[in-house]
Specification:
The structure is a homodimer.
Chain A (H helix, E strand, L loop, with lengths): L1 H5 L9 H11 L3 E3 L6 E3 L1 H20 L3 E2 L5 E3 H4 L3 H7 L4 E6 L2 E9 L4 H11 L8 E10 L13 E11 L2 H21 L6 E4 L11 E8 L5 E11 L1 H5 L3 E3 L5 E3 L1 E8 L1 H10 L16 E5 L7 H14 L4 E3 L6 H10 L4 E5 L1 H6 L1 E6 L5 E5 L3 H25 L2 E4 L2 H9 L3 E6 L3 H11 L2 E6 L21 E6 L3
Parallel strand pairs in A: 3-7, 15-16, 15-17, 20-21
Antiparallel strand pairs in A: 1-2, 4-6, 5-6, 7-8, 8-14, 9-10, 10-11, 11-14, 12-13, 17-18, 18-19, 21-23, 22-23
């Protein structure tokens, strides 16, 4: 029976991009919108986003951030104030020229990100050191006109959160930038069951207008890297461009120090490509819209439907997200569908099970089948959620660790990348070397790692240098 | 001390619009965005919206709705498919002509509402009666280019939820339309402490493209009505325009029946104008960002700060939203600020209070001052939240009921409206009468009420008619 569905999904070992497209469409996570590059996030996909939002939002609030909402429409002149920023984003913006039937005196852009408009407001709101730090976040949509788009990974419009904080000192804003990077990595590990690499981005890869950008990179099952979140330190670049000053305790006016940080619906793409298999999605219990599906088998037999309802109710009372599938379809059809949809635990309730006081269960992560006693089902299912979550992380971590290798020279780097692994290289930070990674292997420096160089020469150019001038960088092909 | 703040807010009896503007800006609910007619929702305002969202979202899910997200950008051609709809919305849309540095082949509009794009997707997704009903909701921003704007009440961009449901039969979609109207009214009563009138809108006031629109109207303290939510029944108008058909059980293809419904950040404006007073905001506990503020008095005295921290912690453990105000300002200054911000309960902790084992409390809704025993504070404060919530509703209901009067003829109608009341009129549904309400009194038919006519002639034209041809309509000046 399984084959009938598996056939609908491309073989991930043969054509990973097609596998991805098949999975996102057939599990009804997403559909294409009528405007090029836009996506409709369907209920099953949106429920994952809601779970991500709830978990992250609680963490943001616990660390002293407040939510707000800034207008989506930004005057063109405001975008233009920070030179590097506008250079980075202007080519991608969507521009509104006509509104309310009239041509606008000044065109406005749809936010590609909100630094400019938030800085504009901060400059009005901030007077004294008493107003600092100000740590705001917003959940919003943004538009960046991209040439090549793929659902969740790169779309013209996407949903995200963007945190924007201002501080009285460089130390505080840098601490915030790094704290949020670690918050993201902890969240990825504990909620998405996804190990990540974190570190500073190279000059070339940093955010337009930032002094320093830090990234969280996750390994996908095809050996490519996905940038899953970034945090930026702006120093005083934006506060000078937008004139955000405060009167400090010492009686002098100073420019604030600033950070921003964001993750987006891209994380859903990361979950799919970090955990999926030939049968489709495999969802970590903490973000799964349905954690347990209950399927009656031979539902027409006496007592089966009632027992299935009772079991579903018990599981819901234990705080689990439960679907009771009573549709007029065969159990086999339902098994396949829920497997494809990545539901962590399937519980079958049939006449024989009931007779024996058990339920037949199947774990999505290991494909194990086993029985559990009916009278202890809620507790055992709750325990299983934790086990599945942990196991998925352990599995991802093992996969990742076995797919990262040291590249001592460019030949090794090529071999490592071609074997669908990440490479750690020693790099002298010369942009020419970085350009060569791209030119020869279509690979990029993902992040610089906080590790001691494993050799005293640059992997690319072979130049010898002292340890202080060399860094260990993670090089990979990337989404 | 209070006067120092009260002076900053205009007298609501003298200049209600200025009072409103002062309150929204000075309590930092909102600020003006750089693009005309846009607003920044500041943390204190956004927290109210988050409380509204949480309460409504739970109700939507409990009644079988799922959240999704549809693209904000809609091709112009898609908007144009339903004739009445485009006529209603085209004059207000913002149009994107340029994106990614290129002029678009077809301009796209920013959604003013999402019927068109959602219908477009529904027509792809729906095949059989098994796919119905489909009951989706989205939380989103929309843009309508308005000439005259006011924070929360009417802004170019606003946040809202829009539910869009399709059904196999007219009965089901009509039931949904009315169920959601009642859900809104129950929510307004139980969460916003706000009585409302619900009923069908006149032909003139209905939504562009709807067969019937139903509205929820709330009375503001200046005697004007605010449309606080609407639900629409589309019949098959959109399903025919967008070709949403399903194969029914009887083997024939049929067009679906459809509803939509929405409430927006306008509700925050409703809360302000339904409950506020000369000192500023009065917030119902269920939506108040801060339910209890704890203010240490003579904080330098031994044990005061510690006790205040302990009390705040106790209250938080009881599930209350608590602010402990330890800022370097006088207690009087703080009292005024939190009063202006509408916090339901203030608790002062001073040396004398501690000695006597009590806390001095002040209720925002009644301005009563009293003491509560320290050892029972959490329970008593929780009880008070319920009492304040109930009292605010009772007060609003009494105000409303004393401000609705029967108008038997146009002279009476004029008097009633001029005395800042709502009028119930008997109306023969003649659009000419409706036009006269507007022309003579700048008033409109808000909703038609489900009540028996109290006379056998139309309040406007005096024509006699049978009870079946007459309705009782609520006529008021409105926002």
């Amino acid at each position: 029976m399984a084959k009938q569905f598996v056939k609908e999904i491309a073989d991930m070992d043969v054509d990973f991009p097609q596998w991805y497209t098949d999975v996102v469409l057939k599990t009804q996570l997403v559909d294409y919108g009528p405007v090029k590059g836009t996506m409709v996030i369907r209920p099953y996909g949106y429920a994952i986003w809601e779970n991500i939002q709830r978990e992250l939002d609680a963490r943001f609030k616990a660390t002293g951030h407040q939510n707000a909402y800034f207008p989506m429409l930004i005057p063109m002149s405001l975008l233009n104030k920070e030179a590097e920023h506008v250079e980075g984003f202007a080519p991608e913006v969507a521009v509104v020229n006509v509104a309310g039937g009239e041509t606008l005196a000044e065109p406005v852009v749809i936010r590609p990100t909100s630094e400019t408009i938030i800085c504009n407001m901060y400059s009005k709101w901030i007077n004294s050191y008493r107003d600092l730090p100000l740590k705001l976040n917003q959940w919003a949509n943004v538009v960046r006109w991209e040439k090549t788009t793929r659902p969740f990974l790169r779309t013209s419009e996407f949903l995200w959160q963007e945190g924007h904080t201002i501080h009285a000192t460089r130390e505080e804003s840098m601490a915030e930038t790094l704290d949020m990077l670690h918050l993201y990595a902890d969240f990825a590990r504990d909620v998405l069951a996804m190990p990540t690499f974190i570190g500073q981005k190279s000059e070339k890869e940093k955010f337009a207008g930032a002094e320093a950008t830090f990234g969280m990179e996750a390994m996908m099952l095809d050996g490519k890297s996905l940038q899953a979140g970034t945090t930026h330190h702006f120093g005083q670049k934006f506060s000078r461009a937008y004139d955000i000053q405060f009167l400090d305790k010492d009686g002098t006016h100073k420019y604030v120090w600033q950070s921003s940080w964001g993750v987006s619906t891209r994380l859903i793409g990361a979950i799919i490509m970090a955990h999926g298999d030939q049968r489709g999605l495999v969802l970590p219990p903490k973000v799964a819209p349905v954690q347990v599906v209950v399927i009656p088998v031979a539902a027409h037999k006496e007592g089966v439907s009632e027992k299935a309802v009772e079991v579903a109710e018990q599981l819901r009372k234990a705080g689990l997200r439960v679907e009771l599938d009573t549709r007029d379809q065969s159990p086999g059809w339902k098994f396949n569908e829920w497997e494809m949809k990545g539901v962590p635990l399937r519980i079958e309730i049939g006449p024989r099970d009931i007779e024996q006081g058990v339920a037949t269960c199947s774990r999505r992560d290991t494909c194990e089948k086993f029985t559990l006693p009916l009278d202890d089902l809620a507790d055992r299912a709750s325990e299983l959620m934790q086990q599945i979550q942990s196991n998925m992380y352990a599995k991802s971590l093992a996969f990742r660790d076995s797919h990262v290798k040291l590249a001592r020279n460019m030949d090794e780097l090529g071999e490592i990348l071609d074997s669908k692994c990440f490479a750690k290289v020693v790099w002298d930070k010369d942009p020419a070397c970085e350009a060569l990674f791209k030119e020869k292997f279509q690979a990029t420096v993902r992040v610089m790692l906080d590790e001691r160089p494993f050799q005293d020469v640059c992997t690319c150019c072979g130049r010898k240098d002292s340890a202080e001038n060399l860094v260990v960088a993670l090089v990979a092909r990337a989404y």
